[in-house]
User: Fold this.
Amino acid sequence: MSYQQYEQLVTELCAAIDLPDPGAVLDRGWVEVEGFEVQLTHYENDVAAMYINFHFGIVTPGRTLTVYRLLLEANLTVYAQDQAQAGINPDTGGIILIVRVPMTPDINGGWLAETLTHYAEHGRYWGDNILASHEEAFLGICSGDYLWIKV
Assistant:
């Protein structure tokens, strides 16, 4: 497992989603997927994996503590089955989803494209139902009934 394998996967991803310049994606380190900025990274201390970081949006002031609770619940109930974790970027206050993707022989550009589309759907759900909801709906989301969790 190596950086070359990461480069190959990013190149295959670009081919799968019709991006003509994988070199530019590797230089920038991110792509836009259905309106979400998605950072693609590879770390020397985890050469067997690549990381996909979705930026879902900014938490509305006054809702941070409740959104933290919802993120924790999502990590325990939804993302525990994936190699993913939701959190808040301390620099921006934005919700991020970090997905660890093992670079195994069955992972290719098509699989990555489907995975990006899958998590973009999660981002839309967070944006539509939690980040942008009006106060009455937000209180219903946070009632503790866990109806907001979509698996």
About this structure: The longest helix spans residues 109-131. Strands lie at 30-33, 36-41, 49-58, 84-88, 94-102. Helices lie at 3-16, 22-28, 64-77, 109-131, 135-141.
